[in-house]
TrEMBL record:
Belongs to the PrpD family. It comes from Colletotrichum musicola. Residues 2-91 form the MmgE/PrpD N-terminal domain. InterPro entries: MmgE/PrpD_sf, MmgE/PrpD_sf_1, MmgE/PrpD_sf_2, MmgE_PrpD, MmgE_PrpD_C, MmgE_PrpD_N. It comes from the Eukaryota. GO terms for molecular function: lyase activity. Residues 113-272 form the MmgE/PrpD C-terminal domain. PANTHER family: 2-METHYLCITRATE DEHYDRATASE (PTHR16943:SF8), 2-METHYLCITRATE DEHYDRATASE-RELATED (PTHR16943). This is MmgE/PrpD family protein.
Amino acid sequence: MATVGSIGAAVAVGKILDLKLEELQKAISIAAIQVTGMHDSFGIDAKPFHVGRAAQNGLMAALLAKNGFSASLEGLEAERGWIHVVSTRENTTAEFEALGEVWEIERNTFKPFPCDRIIHAAIDGWIQIRQLALEQNFNISSITNVTARTHPRVLFLTDDPEPTTGLAGKFSVYPAAAIALLYGKATPSQFTDDVVQNSTVIGLREKVHVTSDDTFEELEEFVSATFEDGTTLEVHVEHTIGSYENPLTAEQLKVKFLDQVGTAIGDSRAEQAWLTFSTIANATDVGDALRLYRSEAKTSG
């Protein structure tokens, strides 16, 4: 999002503003010079700032182009343009030829967990191990060792063994393992400062050992937990929940929606919001949703 979000937002806003071709080219160039974001910001406030700033930059780029701001017409493909700044690939013909034919948005899915997607398979696997343990009457507190064999990018992106905040915990595979095993779920309520700093979470986190396997897919994981009696439970996650091959069901998506939205606006209004948004394709006036919540907000004081 940080490296392409500004450009995507500029195109989206440009289409809404009905920009002419040359204006849209300029909007893309203006957005391209504002791309933001670095891996070094993972786990701190600057990380979510990337996303908001990208959207803001794209909006501004489209508005500037609409109002005559001058910019290159080849901001992406020029010899010193964006593509050559962010990539070592010199031939982008294939990508440009796919425009209008390949739609990446069709491969988008809803994330089940509020953390770096690269550790979703691990969380999925450890939640399954917790369930197996409970079914076999094992106590999670008797775990002596936790392992994961995973794609190399997991350690590249989330190898922070001692995160101290909830936000940092979202980008560390170690507390993610402890949270999944102890709570059996991973929602915003688990990725808080209090949970990440909890002594029980830290104790289990310190038993987690992760190794890389370059034969694995990015969203594939082999996880295990060993208990005091020597029993080891293992799970191989080939396609994690929330992946293109294994998307959230409608019921799972509803549970996630109500959990997160209910925290902000209350359970009753969250239920109404779910009903409204899940049937919005059949709505004759999407403004009904906005008017509904404004009305209830006034009624409830």
